[in-house]
Structure formats: C-alpha cells, structure tokens
Amino acid sequence: MTDLGTDGDDRLAAIAAALSDEPGVTLGHGRRGFGSGTLMTDGRIFALVSDGRLVLKLPAKRVSALIAEARGLPWSAGKPTPLREWVAIPDEAPDWLDLAIEAAGFVGGRTGSAGG
Description:
- The protein is built from three helices and six strands, in the order αββββαββα.
- The chain is α+β, with helices and mostly antiparallel strands.
- Strands 1-2-3-4-6-5 form a six-stranded antiparallel β-sheet.
- A hairpin with a 2-residue loop joins β2 and β3.
- The C terminus is likely disordered.
C-alpha cells in the first residue's frame, strides 16, 4: 500500500481524494458538534479527526470486532461512555483506507450488512 499519510488529517485528505468520484461524499463543516475536519456522505458524517486520530462510523458489531482484534480503539467524543458505532483507528493500522470506504458505504446505506 502506498503511504497516504500518517496522521488523521493526512488520512482524511486521502479518503476524500479516494472517494472524490462517489456521489454525495463531501467535506463537512462542523455543524454537528464534531468540528471541522469531517467527511460526510449524503449529509451524514462517516469520518472525522479527533486528537489527530482518524475516527470512523461503522456498524456496532463491526466496531466491537475491531476493538476485540486490537484493530480499533473505543471513541467517546468526550462523553462518559464510548459511542457504539464509532471507532478510532490506530495510526499503525494498515487497512485504514479500506475501513474508511466501508464506513462511507455503511453511513450512505450502500452496504448489504448494516450491522447492529
């Protein structure tokens, strides 16, 4: 895999470039409290940067599996408990771009498995 960036902001830019031909994928403007630095599909956030780390929205079961496999970290958005459909991706994760594409499909309703 080509090095597409090592921090959350670089990775967000790489995701935006990789999905630039996908209908409905846009850079967010922070209107939902997550701040700027979000990617949206059809007006819904699927990726953001928090504390320099890429954070993705995926089905809850997928998030649990990624955390159990040490491929993801719980993300709480500053709340007392982690959000069940959000996962922070470790910097060393080699498949972060694939996971981001999966997140865009999940949020955009373009996957066969919505999880739960």
